[in-house]
Automatic annotation (TrEMBL):
Domain of life of the source: Bacteria
Predominant location category: other
Domain spans labelled Cytochrome c: 27-111
Family from the record: Belongs to the cytochrome c family. PetJ subfamily.
Organism: Sphaerospermopsis reniformis
PROSITE patterns according to UniProt: CYTC (PS51007)
Pfam families: Cytochrome_CBB3 (PF13442)
Key word Transport present: yes
Molecular function GO labels: electron transfer activity; heme binding; iron ion binding
Protein name: Cytochrome c class I
Protein location: Cellular thylakoid lumen
């Protein structure tokens, strides 16, 4: 199922503002952070990868290992979270679309700012 384009554009607009986080956006960032902590940090603490060391959540690794990351980073991260790959499980039945969008936005923002 595809995320509506409007939600995707809103998420991207919000991401560019995360570098200058104001109180209203801090709550949005903390939601993605909380979801990440609960579902992702056991393998990806601090943007690392405990199972496959070189496939981190650093921007350079995401760009290298996720197809289309350079042209559609948010959608690519969403796809990875939803479907998983190799050792990473799929989360589409464990997280809502909104939760996936929030954690994808969080991962993108952290990758852009260097974890």
């Amino acid at each position: 199922m595809r995320i509506p384009l409007l939600i995707l554009l809103l998420a991207i607009a919000l991401l560019f503002n995360f570098q200058f986080i104001d109180p209203a956006l801090a709550a949005e960032a903390s939601t993605g952070s909380a979801i990440f902590s609960n579902h992702c940090a056991s393998c990806h603490i601090g943007g690392a990868n405990i199972l496959v060391e070189h496939k981190t959540l650093q921007k350079s690794a995401l760009s290298k290992y996720l197809e289309n990351y350079d042209t559609e980073p948010i959608q690519t991260i969403i796809h990875q979270i939803q479907n998983g790959k190799s050792a990473m499980p799929a989360f589409k039945s464990k997280l809502s679309e909104q939760e996936i969008l929030e954690v994808a936005a969080y991962v993108f923002q952290k990758a852009e700012t260097g974890w």
